[in-house]
Automatic annotation (TrEMBL):
It comes from Bracon brevicornis. This is Uncharacterized protein. It comes from the Eukaryota.
Length: 28
């Protein structure tokens, strides 16, 4: 299982970005 589907990786990255965005908004 070397090749990971780019869609899955993009989904994880976008989820982390949204989560980080929410955290920054919460702290400000």
């Amino acid at each position: 299982m070397k090749a990971h589907p780019p869609l899955s990786q993009l989904l994880v990255i976008s989820f982390l970005v949204i989560f980080a965005s929410g955290e920054l908004e919460f702290y400000q």
